[in-house]
Amino acid sequence: MLPEEQELKRLECEETELEEQVASAELALETLKTEMSQFHYRYYRLVGYLYVEMDELGARITSEEAERYPDNIELQARAHDAEQQARRSAEEAGLTENQAPPAKITPEIKQAYRKATKLMHPDRATNEIERERRTIMMARVNRAYEAGDLAAIEQLVIDFGEDSEAVEGSDTGARLVKVIRRIAQLRRRLSEAEQELSEQKQTELYELMSTVGEAEASGEDPLGDLARQLTRHINERKVRLELLCQPAS
């Protein structure tokens, strides 16, 4: 075997390994996004709506107090801030309330996603037209994955057709150039996926999800405990508001 052919074989092995790493990184990223979406939905259903109710009661209480003491500048500012907080909570709750429960991601869906990623990733394109086609297809695959739609992913793989990039040319030199460029693309995408995964893990939502997950794994019920605590605060605010609304004797 000629030295060029040996080098080509070595690089093709490296390319294959990188493809596996990229597919794994892409899968890990999409899976984490889905898990965070699932947690966010569950968090709202258990405690998020209670925060909304508590903020609304707080706004009503401070508004009543501000009306009683119109010359108290500090109290007027507190009433304004409480109203803004209640509005923000309500807006966020409105978006979450109408959101369908996130789909369950099965091992079969993960396997199909890996196959689709390896087949049609945009970095496999050799020209801009093909890159655009692959980008559109991968966007559809990502949406199907987030929806937990295995059939849609499998159909997208069929629609995409055979991977033209897998066809090898007869010229060793041209194939060397092709595989070298492909390796560079894979390394770049792997770095991007790992960076995005790291950024997701630095968000407040991920930290909360991890903390709750660890507590639940130990048999605790942190969200249930928080819900009960918020319910007590809500009842206290209801009593306070009722007292404020009573006419002076």
UniProtKB/TrEMBL annotation:
Keywords: Chaperone, Coiled coil
InterPro entries per record: DnaJ_domain (IPR001623), J_dom_sf (IPR036869)
Disordered: annotated span: 79-104
Coiled coil ranges: 1-35, 176-203
Positions with biased composition (Basic and acidic residues): 79-91
Identification of the protein by name: Molecular chaperone DnaJ
Species, as recorded: Methylotuvimicrobium buryatense
Taxonomic classification: Bacteria, Pseudomonadati, Pseudomonadota, Gammaproteobacteria, Methylococcales
